[in-house]
Amino acid sequence: MIKEDDVITFWIDMKRTYLIKVKKGKKFGSDKGAINLDSIIGLEYGSEVTLSTGNKAYVLKPSLIDIYNGLKRPSQVLYPKDVAYMIYSSGIQPGDIVLEAGTGSGFLTISLAYYLGEKGRVITYDIRQDMQEIAKKNIELLNLTDRVTFKLKDVREGFEESNVDAIFLDMPDPWNVAKHAYDALKPSGSIVIFVPTTNQIEKVGIALKNSGFIDIHAEELILREYQIKENATRPKNIGVMHTGYIIRGRKSLKSST
Amino acid sequence: MIKEDDVITFWIDMKRTYLIKVKKGKKFGSDKGAINLDSIIGLEYGSEVTLSTGNKAYVLKPSLIDIYNGLKRPSQVLYPKDVAYMIYSSGIQPGDIVLEAGTGSGFLTISLAYYLGEKGRVITYDIRQDMQEIAKKNIELLNLTDRVTFKLKDVREGFEESNVDAIFLDMPDPWNVAKHAYDALKPSGSIVIFVPTTNQIEKVGIALKNSGFIDIHAEELILREYQIKENATRPKNIGVMHTGYIIRGRKSLKSST
Amino acid sequence: MIKEDDVITFWIDMKRTYLIKVKKGKKFGSDKGAINLDSIIGLEYGSEVTLSTGNKAYVLKPSLIDIYNGLKRPSQVLYPKDVAYMIYSSGIQPGDIVLEAGTGSGFLTISLAYYLGEKGRVITYDIRQDMQEIAKKNIELLNLTDRVTFKLKDVREGFEESNVDAIFLDMPDPWNVAKHAYDALKPSGSIVIFVPTTNQIEKVGIALKNSGFIDIHAEELILREYQIKENATRPKNIGVMHTGYIIRGRKSLKSST
Amino acid sequence: MIKEDDVITFWIDMKRTYLIKVKKGKKFGSDKGAINLDSIIGLEYGSEVTLSTGNKAYVLKPSLIDIYNGLKRPSQVLYPKDVAYMIYSSGIQPGDIVLEAGTGSGFLTISLAYYLGEKGRVITYDIRQDMQEIAKKNIELLNLTDRVTFKLKDVREGFEESNVDAIFLDMPDPWNVAKHAYDALKPSGSIVIFVPTTNQIEKVGIALKNSGFIDIHAEELILREYQIKENATRPKNIGVMHTGYIIRGRKSLKSST
How confident is the model over C182-209, as pLDDT tens digits? Predict the structure, then answer.
């Protein structure tokens, strides 16, 4: 049942999906019609509501993809397809402790906090206080504050933790953090790095190899959306051709040679 | 520390990655050399070991991708890239209860069990007993038995549960299960379906729409692997061009019209 | 040397490339500056010119891709990547005679006329006179009139030619033309068909098979554009994810069975 | 009608397509059956023939894709999808004169010779005599000798021609040839370069820009083959994920600055 202060997905149609915080006395408006948020309180998730125009809308429990679409984000954030694979390929499980740099708008942070569950912890580093303030608000909005620790520090100078389960990097020069990441990781733990340009693939891959990581993979995911229409099903014409590359490796206890 | 009966990843190189159960007195052999498994017991994950040939290898904690590569699977299983996105886009969280059909070799089952954590539950249906026996063994191997319930039943006749958080379908005619899935799902809950052929996209999409689902998306993921090599970094030449399509939707409480 | 009435490519930058007919006394204007076309007459192709604003521009001989970008086209036209492969895979050579339906805005017609050379002929069918008028003007503009014959007729009732080297179809229901195409083609000649949706692939493929065609292939081309930038080379973010599918086959003299 | 010494495509099925020279008294054999080539002489292209096993086969006029599949080639050759787009985007027409380096096994040479027609000329450079001997034989086999001139020379020392219509490069370090290519090209003429790795894109692009080329594009084509099967049409599972990148530009008469 939806209560005041809950964050919900307000779904009018495929192009009009909003993330809103339910507040008494507040009104939500769009080009398809408006609704008084009071009327949403007490409804079951999934319910149909009627807008001022007579159009129908639905109240849904926010998924991570809804959060991606609705999040306040002054900076470019990672795409769901990439976040999904980064988390999956890292091997993390509920209850794990992971490091992240940089925080950015906090979308990867939120996704990690979701997956790690109540006992898990994300420690997220950034060098920009203004960005972390935005990320903090995003994380508060979603009631995930207990799972996240913010640190305002340049990880090129090292992490403060050790023996963590996985490390996620989305920053301009991750090769400068490879050695620090190795030190902070639990043996056999994963590092997962996102970079947007081709020359970074090589730099990251070589830095990982030289820092004691093994099982190094560089991968790219292309997502195609399909239009479903009777006798006219086909991929959508225009879309995202490129986001970036995911490079991952695992900490080995290599004997020095 | 690695104990007897632990399932470990035995990593020799990128093409020689094995999932093995550590047993006293047993030997592991490959074209790159052999090792007595006794010598692995007591080692820390990440440790380097030396094969009979002098070659080095590493003992790692199995990730889901290792499990994918090493799992006993007489049938085609879903690819990690697809499983990652199916789980992510479903919005499930640790502790949730989900349904799955069919079980197949159990790779999606295992991935779900990992993500749902100790408090989560996967109820998985199949019509083939022989397949479920294999899946059961795979799940036992990974010590996930407590999180999984097996049912030998045709879901085209309906699910036995209700109010579940999400439903995952990987079966030849999922359109025949759309209505039953709707009935078993919690409002706002997700259905996520995998199909290999183009004409199935349309059939599934239309069935979902006609069964009360909204926010219906059909997507496809193409994964490109890159070779990392100094001054010669490029995508690998040959690879998997196609696995299938992922169609998802959410249960709405639509007023009948 | 550029003469009056020549059609040239006027290149200001990657996003400002125009196809213009050089006329005395006329002026060309853009947001980057203007130029009197008189000043272009007599220049060598490749020359640099200065716009009213001081910006530089270049006069180039139009390539087929320039024509694609600059052509008057009320309807969607085939993309260069698809036209290139359709022509190449058809096996046609200079001097050949080919059929096409429908004409549309004439971009494939123009491409065929270019490749077939002075001795080649394109006979192009359409059912819409208004479209053929536009195509005719496009073909006149490029001085290719001698190579093209226009026919206003529904090819579902058959072609008027026989023994042609290849047939190209870009129309909604090409399966209804497979048998007529077979009759009009020279044995061993190619049919090449473009369709935008997935269900059409199957319908076309089966119609070709049932009409005596062999060596039937269905293919799709995805083109990724790259941004070249020092230390930041990468695919462009947004692009064309889908145009359509190319299905081709060759006429065999199969004994009836 | 097929005569002795003609090169034909012998098509048994999608996986058994052969390029053979028809010789009296010779026999062609495959795992699907054999045939005496005498029986092919005098047949019309497209004809059905019966193999020793009773299986059917077809004699076809070789297309460029047949030649690609059947060509003797000790080195990796460019793929048809890339050759098609390289030629198309170059803007060349029948009768043009083009340069190529390196010759390799001659597949691009053959494709160019086909498109340029009887009046066109390809001048092809390579530094390896053994490769050019193979290419020569391939070109002789296809009766294209009159259209091709072979030169055994390192183009990094310059081309011997000037005012050519287009230049095609498929060699390890094309950036070292950009300036020579500029000198040999007709103003407004195209250079089209193929490279397999990501770091080469940037090097080539910058070299072209610094050598007076404009309208520089870097592109990549991904081809997906589809299986056509009733109710089971879908992309083929395994395929070529990567061949290389195509970079092209046009010679401008830039004022030096």
Answer: 999 999 999 999 999 999 999 999 999 9
B195 confidence band (pLDDT: 50, 70, 90): very high
Specify the pLDDT at position C72: 82
For D239, phi then psi, to 5°, come to -165, -175
Domain with CATH 3.40.50.150 in chain A: 67-251
Residue B257 scores a pLDDT above 60: no
The reply to whether B7 touches chain A by the CB within 8 Å rule is: no
Map tokens 């964050």 to a residue.
A7
Q: For position B230, what pLDDT does the model report?
A: 93
Q: Which of D202, D223, D237, D240 to mutate to test the interface with B (most CBs of B within 10 A)?
A: D237
- What distance in Å separates the CA atoms of residue C117 and residue C126, rounded to the nearest whole number? 23
Contacts of B202 in chain C (CB under 8 A): 198-199
Query: Do C198 and A234 make contact, defined as CB atoms within 8 angstroms?
Result: yes
Size of interface B-D (CB pairs under 8 A): 61
The answer, for D146 touching chain A at a CB cutoff of 8 Å, is no
pLDDT of residue A255: 72
Domain A7-62 sits in CATH at 3.10.330.20
Instruction: Please classify residue C74 by burial: count the beta carbons closer than 10 Å to its beta carbon, then call 0-12 exposed, 13-18 middle and 19+ buried.
Output: exposed
User: Which residue in C168, C41, C160 sits closest to C107, CA to CA?
Assistant: C168
Question: Which contiguous run of DSSP H or E holds residue A208?
Answer: helix A198-210
Contact criterion met (CB < 8 Å) for A242 and C242: no
Distances (CA, A) of A28 to A19, A24, A57, A60, B141: 11, 11, 12, 15, 51
Is C201 within 8 Å of B201 when comparing Cβ atoms? no
Contact D113, D133 (CB under 8 A): no
pLDDT at C76: 84
Give the pair of three-digit tokens for residue D193: 């370069």
Amino acid identity, position D16: R
CB contacts, 8 Å: B182 with chain A: none
* pLDDT, tens only, B39-70: 999 999 999 999 999 999 999 999 999 999 99
Residues of chain A short of pLDDT 70, as ranges, are 256-257
Low-confidence ranges of chain C (pLDDT < 50): none
What tokens does C14 get? Answer: 């990657």
Q: Output the pTM of the full model.
A: 0.96
Asked if the C-beta of B235 comes within 8 angstroms of chain D's C-beta atoms, the answer is yes
Is B228 in CB contact (< 8 Å) with chain D? no
Length of chain D (residues): 257
B72 confidence band (pLDDT: 50, 70, 90): confident
Considering only CB atoms, C48 lies closest to which of D81, D83, D252, namely: D252
d(CA A253, CA D241): 34
What's the CA gap between B109 and C171, in Å, rounded? 45
CB B183 within 8 A of CB B158: yes
Chain A positions touching D198 (Cβ under 8 A) are 198-199, 201-202
Quick one: tokens of D56? 């059917």
| Residue C256, token pair as written in the block | 């009836």
Whole-number average pLDDT of chain B: 96
User: Residue D63 pairs with which residues in a beta bridge?
Assistant: none
Per-residue pLDDT, B76: 84
* D27: helix, strand or coil: strand
The secondary structure of D141-185 as a DSSP string is HTT-GGGEEEEES-GGG--S--SEEEEEE-SS-GGGGHHHHHHHE
| Chosen CATH of A67-251 out of 3.40.50.360, 3.40.50.10610, 3.40.50.150, 3.40.190.10 | 3.40.50.150
Q: What is the pLDDT of residue B254?
A: 85
pLDDT score at B164? 98
User: B8: pLDDT confidence band, cut at 50, 70 and 90?
Assistant: very high
Of D47, D188, D201, the CB nearest to C233: D201
